[in-house]
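To: structure subgroup
Subject: Chain for Friday's discussion

All,

I'm putting the inputs and outputs inline so they're searchable in the archive.
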Amino acid sequence: MSGLYPDNRRVRPTGRMIFYHLGELTLQIGTDPPTVRITRGVQLHLLDLLDTDIGQTRWPQT
């Protein structure tokens, strides 16, 4: 997979690298429905590989 390192070398993603890139995702609450802000294409690719539907935001139960 390319895009994990600045020089775009193709590597197999590790758990640490996945968390590093997904750790920069933010949830924009001011919109209805809330949206996930993706700042880099690699984040979208990782979410797609993890079969994650970012349109289904889950709020914590109170």
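Points worth raising on Friday:
The two ends are 39 Å apart (CA to CA).
The longest strand covers residues 26-28.

D.
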